[in-house]
């Protein structure tokens, strides 16, 4: 006997046959099937192996709460593990594998773990592997040895190694009312809100809207429930103010009524359509939220309760009614409440035989008795299931009389059944409410945690509120015909065998946590719900304990002799169910990651530049010519600058327009040195500190007009400097009439540097002279190059005669081309960041590596820039005792005495072979200096200048680089600056 | 005068793209205005600045944040306290404004090269933009003429609604190409035309 | 979390940058009172309750705002332009 497709019935489309494979075996199903229903229809009841004990497991539920039937979906090169079969819509070509089995699902070596049962009880890993070695098979070192094997054996599916090539996107939604859940309560709420003219989103995690009405037998307004659903949906779909979101799980409830939702756009298709993402992540801001998330049925914990063929009663009924699948031929029902009687009748109507209905209660309602009579089969009141048997699926159950929460010995009866439908009561799905509310409260009558008082703008509806009937969900205005059962759950969560050794009774099926594990946790003192959860891992699996939480708490409460209301529950945190990382990263990742390109970007790439990501910017590192190493390339480029002329793209420098009558005063306050004295058409190098007197950023600022300055910043700090200026203008000196505007992208910049730089400009600049009189050091002129207006400032970062040529960004390439053409006579060489770095190291100019947030201006020998005539940001604290101490680490130059390369971050020590803990400082920047023919570096070293001429050693154990160095002045090359002033 | 080169040039492909079956629910266009100029008023001089904008453009803008107006070749809108953007297809409007706006009123800052202007139009324009920005694009929340400052990750963007289903976007030039790739990809599922 | 920017309206937290405690007063720039500067630069009250703080709408109009926010509930009690309320 096995599950099978019923001859008729269900909402599947029997005229459409879909092919799929499970562990390589070809099977078919119908449109409208889930993988779970299709597997059952194919007679498959063994779907996976359990987490620790590798026990055979089958389908347990019909929804998102599925703990057992997890599979790996394979699409192309991609594997998505741990997907509940109940959540996979069948499509033609679907390929899935079972998990956690070797070599095959039916013959699994790991099942031997089941024999070593008590070995793997709660706390096994902590007890065995933590702490010092106390014997050969104990302790942390033993863990190191065992880890590989344990990780292989335990756990769930295996993720793939291929990059995820699927597309994901984000979406922002705004609405008046977000309705979560589309059962009778959700549909009614959406319809009412829409009728009020509200903008409504209706989110449903399943592919079809309608919730329980898709498989319950109620009649609404005199029509079958599914007719009512279809017409209500048609009505909603036609409204312009309603958005229906099927396959969309609302997974998180955040501040200010912002909710996260995941829409699975094409998981149910073999191929995505053009432009279609796999998942779409919604951030929904709703003025009001209606939680109509329904309720989850709970299992009852009893010995042997995990065999394939044992499932929730509502799931069994749903397979029969919605999917036309009989989960068994001969079915037993085991319940502590009336709802299972409806399920029994549904199963009977679909064609199954109800062998027996077992109820722990001594008496049940008249309506329930009537349902039992219609369903057929024996009604055993005051009985409980106490054991089950069957190798790979259920074959037989044993029942015994049960009263006052205890099994009565004797009177054991056995029933041969292939399916056991269990109902241990219902728990409202309060997960989202718990994220946006106070602590949930235990309700004694319903034996469930009810939604807490809200801390945000939401209301509840339907089964979520504990009103479990369809009539209650629909409200008073709609006539409903359904069996008038009394829900009336008995407070029975576990059937605990007395004395004799019995089969394992599972609470958390996915993590293999048993009732005795919970009692063990209690005995060992892990009694609070939070400790219980972490010690046993109860509720921590991918299903997050949707079916196991309440039974687990009830067992702990019983062990402690307390009512459940006093034991409480853990807080539900987001996500409600799994959210793909791809959807969360979306366009922040891969191809669509934002990046910044300079106006000359395409030219650099076409010239073979090796590009380097500097923050979001892409900058040329070197321009490789065939076969050169990086070092050869930058040495060639840097040498060309020293010998003739080079050109470098400086468009990435931060540029800020500082405008207004108080601009000069403002600059005096934010820079350490004076800018109000700077004449128009002159530039000055400036240094900014933070309030505590630590160096913050440097750059040149150009006075373009009386009230008009152009400030440049380092590439990396452009955003921070902008915020720094805006902060002072808004919050500290609002009286200053100054506007700052980011103009980084307005200007393209090219620095032309080298002894022939002036000749290059002379041959291409129109409208101005550029000789030493017209354009002295730090002077500014305006002219044209190739018809494009340019602003030229004579300043040098390389120590050579050099000019920065700025033009409108849209003219950038044009001006660059003209400069290259003009430079051809002088063999102009484009140079990248590496050569730029080399030239500045040779000159001892500091950048971000030295201005690292810890160095003061004195540490960098920039004291000459600290004005004594005016206060500035940082002036009050720059002279603090600690910043004046003689043993501060200060800027020096380093020369490798062994002619080998140095590395950034390497330490400087006083004695050879000394470990870096004897460090007197570290290297911040390094290069091979073509000007000196040596490997050199900048470093910050204790004492700084006082050590010039001293021998020291580099100690870099990470790269195994040790050797002698000489500490020298950081002005390696042309310390008088004669070249740039020439 | 040299031509202004757009950062989108190598990736700008006119014609129909994406899902052709869906028709073309969106039209994307780089509008390449000749002038994009920022005006910033000193505190207390905002009304005078709006008057100057009226003199220069003929648009009288209301005081409320984000208020703007757009016509065929010209638009203006507020995007920050005391700050407006004036956009014109003609080059050099900055000079005209500079003459009208003295130091006592505020400042003029030319951004014509620094911002890339992209228009998006069509029945799915709101939907495409909803993928990129955390803004409510419904017309009652974002009326015609209105402008908003926002960001897509690090891509700072000014948006102005210039029609029931049309928006103009201004992004930093250096980000324009990666932003263009993204907005095209976002429109792909609906089918889009690059004009 | 939403911050209702007085210019742009309510926007997501991700558009804003925290810019520090707004209870501080910057000493007179000419002052050499090290304890006053120390207090300004380093000393903060770790408030459990309403906290006055600067936020910049960096992904929007770029204005600095003075926000009064409960550190216990994230509830925002008031938002105003820093230019108009600072000092």
What's the CATH H-level superfamily name of chain C?
Folate-binding superfamily
Which band does the percent of strand residues of chain C land in? Answer: 35-45%
Number of helices of chain C: 2
What top-tier CATH class of the largest domain in chain B fits best? Answer: Alpha Beta
In CATH terms, the superfamily of the largest domain in chain B is: Probable tRNA modification gtpase trme, domain 1
* Strand composition percent of chain B: 35-45%
Q: Which properties best describe this structure?
A:
heterotrimer; B: 195 residues; Alpha-Beta Plaits; 2 domains; 7-stranded mixed sheet; 4 helices; globular; C: mainly beta; Folate-binding fold; 4-stranded antiparallel sheet; two-stranded antiparallel ribbon; 2 helices
Describe the structure.
The complex is a heterotrimer of chains A (about 1000), B (about 200) and C (about 90). Chain A is an alpha+beta fold and about 1000 residues long. In chain A, strand 39 and strand 40 (about 695-705) form a beta hairpin. The mean pLDDT of chain A is about 95. Chain B is α+β, with helices and mostly antiparallel strands and about 200 residues long. Chain B has 2 domains: about 15-30 and about 115-195, Gyrase A, domain 2 (2-Layer Sandwich), CATH 3.30.1360; about 35-110, Alpha-Beta Plaits (2-Layer Sandwich). Chain B has a 7-stranded mixed beta sheet. Chain B has a 5-stranded antiparallel beta sheet with strand order 4-5-6-3-7, covered by helices on one side. Chain B is globular. The two termini of chain B are about 25 Å apart. With about 90 residues, chain C is mainly beta. Chain C has 2 helices and 6 strands, in the order βββαβββα. Chain C has helices at about 35-40, 80-85; strands spanning about 1-5, 10, 15-20, 50-55, 65-70, 75-80. In chain C, the strands form 2 sheets. Chain C has a 4-stranded antiparallel beta sheet with strand order 3-4-5-6. A two-stranded antiparallel sheet of chain C has the order 1-2. In chain C, strand 5 (about 65-70) and strand 6 (about 75-80) form a beta hairpin. The longest helix of chain C is centred in the middle third of the chain and has 9 residues, at about 35-40. Chains A and C meet through helix 19 of A and helix 1 of C.
């Amino acid at each position: 006997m096995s599950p099978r497709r019923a001859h008729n019935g269900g909402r599947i489309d029997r005229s459409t046959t879909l092919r799929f494979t499970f562990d390589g075996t070809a099977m078919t199903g119908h449109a409208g099937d889930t993988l779970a229903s299709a597997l059952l229809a194919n007679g498959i009841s063994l779907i996976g192996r359990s987490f620790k004990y590798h026990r055979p497991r089958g389908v347990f539920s019909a929804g998102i709460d599925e703990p057992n039937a997890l599979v790996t979906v394979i699409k192309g090169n991609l594997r998505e593990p741990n997907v509940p079969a109940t959540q996979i819509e069948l499509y033609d070509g679907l390929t899935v594998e079972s998990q956690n089995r070797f070599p095959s699902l039916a013959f699994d070596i790991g099942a031997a773990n089941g024999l070593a049962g008590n070995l793997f009880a709660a706390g096994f890993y902590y007890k065995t592997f933590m702490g010092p070695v106390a014997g050969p098979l104990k302790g942390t070192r033993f863990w190191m040895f065992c880890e590989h094997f344990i990780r292989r054996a335990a756990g769930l599916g295996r993720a793939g190694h291929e990059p995820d090539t699927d597309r994901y996107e984000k979406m922002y939604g705004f609405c008046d009312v977000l309705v979560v859940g589309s059962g009778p309560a959700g549909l009614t709420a959406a319809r009412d809100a829409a009728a009020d003219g509200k903008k409504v989103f209706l989110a449903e995690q399943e592919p079809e809207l309608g919730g329980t009405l898709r498989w319950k037998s109620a009649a609404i307004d005199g029509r079958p429930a599914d007719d009512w659903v279809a017409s209500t949906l048609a009505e909603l779909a036609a409204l312009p103010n309603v958005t229906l979101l099927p396959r969309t799980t609302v997974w998180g409830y955040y501040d200010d009524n912002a909710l996260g939702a995941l829409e699975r756009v094409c998981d149910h298709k073999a191929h995505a359509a053009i432009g279609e993402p796999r998942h779409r992540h919604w951030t929904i801001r709703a003025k009001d939220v209606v939680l109509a998330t329904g309720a989850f049925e709970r299992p009852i914990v009893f010995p042997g309760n995990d065999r394939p063929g044992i499932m929730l009663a509502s799931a069994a009924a749903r397979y029969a009614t919605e999917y036309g699948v009989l989960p068994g031929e001969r079915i037993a029902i085991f319940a502590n409440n009336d709802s299972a009687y409806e399920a029994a009748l549904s199963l009977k109507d679909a064609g199954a035989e109800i062998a027996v209905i077992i109820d722990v209660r001594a008496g049940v309602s008249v309506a329930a008795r009537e349902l039992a009579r219609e369903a057929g089969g024996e009604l055993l009141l005051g009985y409980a299931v106490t054991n089950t048997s069957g190798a790979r699926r259920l074959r037989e159950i044993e029942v015994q009389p049960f009263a006052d929460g205890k099994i009565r010995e004797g009177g054991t009866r056995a029933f041969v059944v292939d399916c056991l439908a269990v109902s241990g009561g219902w728990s409202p799905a309060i997960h989202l409410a718990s994220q946006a509310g106070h602590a949930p409260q235990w309700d004694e009558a319903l034996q469930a945690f009810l939604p807490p008082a809200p801390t945000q703008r939401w209301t509840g509806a339907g089964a979520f509120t504990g009103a479990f009937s369809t009539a209650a969900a629909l409200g008073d205005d709609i006539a409903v015909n359904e069996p008038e059962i009394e829900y009336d759950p008995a407070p029975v969560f576990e059937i605990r065998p007395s004395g004799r050794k019995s089969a394992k009774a599972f609470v958390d099926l996915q993590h293999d946590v048993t009732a005795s594990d919970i009692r063990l946790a209690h005995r060992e003192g892990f009694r609070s719900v939070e400790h219980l959860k972490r010690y046993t891992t109860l509720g921590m699996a991918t299903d997050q304990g949707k079916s196991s939480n309440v039974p687990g708490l009830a067992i702990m409460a019983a062990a402690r002799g307390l009512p459940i209301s006093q034991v409480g529950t853990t807080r539900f945190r987001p996500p409600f169910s799994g959210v793909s990382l791809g959807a969360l990263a979306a366009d922040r990742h891969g191809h669509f990651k934002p990046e910044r390109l300079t106006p000359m970007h395409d030219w650099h790439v076409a010239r073979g530049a090796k590009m380097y990501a500097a923050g979001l910017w892409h900058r040329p590192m070197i321009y490789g010519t065939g076969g050169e190493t990086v070092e050869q390339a930058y040495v060639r480029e840097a040498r060309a600058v020293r010998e003739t002329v080079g050109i470098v793209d400086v468009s990435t420098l931060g540029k800020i327009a500082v405008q207004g009558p108080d601009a000069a005063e403002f600059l005096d306050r934010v820079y350490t040195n004076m800018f109000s004295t700077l004449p128009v058409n002159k530039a000055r190098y400036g240094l900014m500190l933070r309030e505590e007197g630590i160096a913050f950023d440097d750059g040149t600022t150009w006075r373009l007009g009386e009230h008009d300055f152009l400030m440049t910043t380092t590439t990396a700090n452009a955003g921070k400097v902008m915020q720094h200026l805006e902060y002072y203008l808004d919050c500290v000196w609002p009286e200053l009439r100054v506007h700052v505007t980011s103009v980084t992208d307005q200007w393209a910049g090219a620095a032309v540097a080298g002894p022939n730089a002036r000749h290059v400009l002379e041959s291409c600049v129109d409208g101005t002279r550029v000789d030493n009189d017209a354009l002295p050091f730090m002077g500014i002129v305006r002219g044209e190059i190739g018809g494009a207006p340019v602003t030229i400032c004579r300043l040098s970062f390389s120590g050579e005669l050099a000019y920065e040529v700025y033009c409108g960004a849209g003219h950038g390439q044009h001006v660059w081309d003209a400069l290259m053409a003009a430079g051809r006579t002088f063999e102009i060489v484009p140079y990248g960041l590496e050569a730029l770095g080399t030239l500045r190291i040779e000159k001892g100019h500091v950048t971000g590596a030295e201005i690292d947030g810890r160095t003061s201006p004195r540490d960098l020998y920039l004291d000459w820039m600290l004005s004594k005539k005016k206060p500035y940001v940082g002036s009050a604290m720059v002279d603090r005792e600690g910043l004046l101490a003689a043993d501060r680490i200060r800027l020096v130059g380093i020369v490798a005495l062994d002619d080998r390369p140095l590395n950034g971050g390497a330490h400087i020590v006083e004695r050879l072979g000394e470990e870096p803990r004897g460090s007197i400082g570290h290297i911040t920047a390094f290069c091979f200096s073509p000007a000196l023919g040596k490997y050199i570096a900048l470093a910050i070293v204790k004492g700084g200048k006082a050590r010039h001429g001293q021998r020291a050693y580099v100690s870099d154990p990470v790269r195994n680089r040790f050797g002698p160095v000489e500490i020298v002045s950081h002005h390696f090359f042309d310390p008088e600056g004669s070249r740039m002033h020439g | 005068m040299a031509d202004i080169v757009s950062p989108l040039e190598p990736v700008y492909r006119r014609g129909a793209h994406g899902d052709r079956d869906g028709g073309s629910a969106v039209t994307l266009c780089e509008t390449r205005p000749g002038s994009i100029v920022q005006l910033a008023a000193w505190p207390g001089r905002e009304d005078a600045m709006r008057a100057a904008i009226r003199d220069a453009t003929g648009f009288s803008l209301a005081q409320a944040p984000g208020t703007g107006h757009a016509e065929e070749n010209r638009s203006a809108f507020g995007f920050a306290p005391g700050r407006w953007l004036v956009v014109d297809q003609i080059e050099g409007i900055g000079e005209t404004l500079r003459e009208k706006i003295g130091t006592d009123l505020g400042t003029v800052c030319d951004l014509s090269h620094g911002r890339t202007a992209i228009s998006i139009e069509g029945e799915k324009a709101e939907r495409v933009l909803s993928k990129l920005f955390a803004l409510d694009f419904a017309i009652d929340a974002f009326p015609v003429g209105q402008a908003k400052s926002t960001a897509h990750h690090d891509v700072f963007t000014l948006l102005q609604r210039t029609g029931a289903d049309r928006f103009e976007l201004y992004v930093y030039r250096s980000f324009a190409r990666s932003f263009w790739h993204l907005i095209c990809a976002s429109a792909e599922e609906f089918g889009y035309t690059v004009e | 979390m939403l911050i209702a920017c007085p210019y742009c309206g309510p926007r997501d937290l991700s558009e804003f940058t925290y810019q520090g405690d707004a209870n501080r007063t910057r000493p007179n720039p000419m002052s050499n009172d090290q304890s006053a500067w120390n207090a300004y630069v380093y000393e903060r009250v770790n408030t459990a309750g309403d906290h006055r703080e600067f936020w910049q709408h960096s992904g929007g109009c770029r204005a600095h705002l003075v926000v009064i926010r409960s550190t216990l509930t994230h509830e925002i009690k008031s938002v105003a332009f820093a230019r108009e309320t600072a000092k």
